[in-house]
Amino acid sequence: MSATATKPRTRRERSPQPARSKPVALDSREPGSPLARLTAEQLEQLGREFDAIHDDVFASLGEPDARYIRRMIRLHRQLVLAARALLLGSRRRPFWLAGTAALSVAKILENMEIGHNVLHGQWDWMNDPDINSQSWDWDTASPAQAWRHSHNYEHHTFTNIRGKDRDLGYEIMRIDPHQRWYPIYLLQPLYNIVLMAFFEWGVALHDLNAGAIRSGEKSRAQLIEELKAIGVKARRQVIKDYVAFPLLSGRAFKSTLAANFTANVIRNVWAHSIIFCGHFPDQTYTFSEDEVAAETRGGWYVRQLLGAANIDGRPLFHVMTGNLSFQVEHHLYPDMPSSRYAEIAPRVRDVCRRYGLPYNTGPLRKQLGTVHRTILRLALPGGRPRPKPERTMG
Question: Whole-structure pTM over 0.85, yes or no?
Answer without folding.
Answer: yes
